[in-house]
Amino acid sequence: MSVTAVRGHLGIIHTQHISMEGDSIGTSIIPIPLPPEIIDTIIDQLYDEARSLKQCSLVSKVFITRAQKHLFRTIKFQLPYRRLPLKYLLKVFDNNPSLTHHVEHLHVTNYFYSKQYTQRDEILPRICRHLCSGSLKSVFFQCARGMVHANSISFDLATALIQMFQSNKLIDITLDYCVNFPVIYLASTCAYLKRLSLISLDSYQGFPLEIPPAYDDHLATSGALALPISSSTSRLEFLKIDYVAALAMQKLYERVSHPPSTFTFSHLRSIELHGHKTSMQEVAAAIIVDAASTLEEFDWDHNSSDPGPEFEDGCPIALGVTTNLRILKFACMHPAETEPFHLLWVAQSLVAIKGHNHLEEIILVLYCHPQDIIEFGWRNSADWASSFDVLLASGDFEFLRRVEISIDFFDYGDEDDVTRDDCDRAHKCLEDRLPLLRGMGVLSISWIR
Fold it and tell me: Is the pTM of this model over 0.85?
C-alpha cells in the first residue's frame, strides 16, 4: 500500500511518497517546481512592497528575477544628502548591466552642482549612460531651489541626459528648475514623447537661446550624435510650462516647427500654463493654433507664483480656434473695484467657441482679498455675470455639466475679521447673479481660506 502527501515551500511542491512493504515503511521526497507563471503571480502581488520583495529574493533563488523587475522599476534619488546610494547603484550596474533593463522610471530631486560634490557629479552621468538600455519610460529631474547658480546642470551630466533621452523610448519628461540645460535637443532625441513638463528652466550663459559649439563637439565625442535619428514622429499629448521656461519653450517650439523633429505639438490634448509673462502667453497661443482640432483641456493659473499682477487686456491666447475643448480651468487675481478683464477674456473665449465645442467643465479660481469682497461684493462683475449666465444657458454648450467658481482668500490673515455670515452673503450675492446656471443645477461656488 502507498500514500502520497503534498506540501509546498518556497516555490517548490514537495510530494512525499510513503510505501509500506510488510513491516517496513519507506519514504521518498520528489521536488516538483512551481510553474513560472505561478511564481510570477506571487511576486507581482508584492510589486509595491520593497521589503517583501527583498526578503523573497534572499530566501529563494526562484524569486530573484521577478523581484528584481519590480525593485529596479523605479529609481529615486534625493540629492545631495544621499550620495552613497548613487555609488552603490553604480557598482551594481557595473557588475550586472542587465539589471538596467528593468528600470522604467528615473526620479532625481534636489540636484545642484558644487565643487563639494564633484564625486556625485561624476557618478550620476555614469548611471545615466548605464540607463541607455532602451527600457526607460519616464524621467523626472529637479534641481535644488533657492540656490543661485548652483542649480546649473554640469556639462557632463547634460550630455549624459541627452544620450539617455535619445537611447530610450521616453513617453514622459519633467525638467524642473534646471539651469543651462540645452532643451532644444529634445526636438531631435524624443521620438516617443507623450508628456512634457518644463518648469522654471532658465539660462545664465545664453542658452538654450544658442547652443555653444562645445556641446555639439562633446556630444559627438560621447557618441550621442552618432545615434541614428528616429524616423518616427511622436504626437505630444500633454504640455506644462511656466513663465520662467517661456524662453526655452519658445526656442524648442521653433526647433520642433522645422524638420527634422521627432515630435509635434499638432496633436496636443492638454496644456497647462503657470504665470502671466507675455512671452509665455505668445508661445502658448502659437501651440494652441497648431493643436486647434485636438486640444481638449486648457488649464491656466495666471498668478501661480506671483499674486500681484492683474490680468491685462489684449491677451494673445485665443481659444476660439479650438474645436474640441472639453475642460476650461482658469485662475486669476480678482480686483473688486476695477474692470474684470480676466472674466471678460473668459467670456470672449466662450463666445468664440460656442458653435464648435464639447465643453463639459468650467472651473474658475478667483484670488480675492476678503475685505474687498465684503465691501464691494461683485458690483464690478455684474455685467459679466449676466452675459456669462445667459451664454452658458443658451443651448450652445449642450455637454456642460459643471461650472465651479472657487474664491481663494490668498492673503487672508487674523487681522481680516471675516465671519461665516460675511462669506454666506458674498456667496449668495454671486449665486444670485447667475440664476440660470443655478437653475440648471450645474453651478457650484466654494471658498478657500
Answer: no
Report whether pLDDT(318) > 90.
yes
Q: Is 285 helix (H, G, I), strand (E, B) or coil?
A: helix
Q: Strand 443-448 to strand 402-409: parallel, antiparallel, or no bridges (unpaired)?
A: parallel
CB 391 within 8 A of CB 350: yes
User: Strand 24-33 to strand 12-21: parallel, antiparallel, or no bridges (unpaired)?
Assistant: antiparallel
What cell numbers appear for 103 in the block? 528600470
Q: Which amino acid is at 405?
A: I
Q: Three-class SS of residue 149?
A: coil
pLDDT digits 0-9 by tens, 206-217 = 444 445 555 555
Which residue do the cell numbers 463639459 mark?
360
Residue span of the structural domain in which 226 resides:
72-265
Q: Which residue has the cell 528615473?
A: 106
Are the beta carbons of 434 and 385 closer than 8 angstroms?
Answer: yes
Q: What is the pLDDT of residues 120-139, one digit of tens each?
A: 578 889 999 999 988 999 99
Residue 198 lies in a domain: yes
| Residue 266 neighbours by CB under 8 Å, 6+ apart | 235, 290, 291, 294
Rounded to whole angstroms, the Cα distance separating 433 from 428 reads 9
Strand partners for 416: none
Number of domains in the chain: 2
In this structure, the answer to whether residues 204 and 345 fall within a common structural domain is no
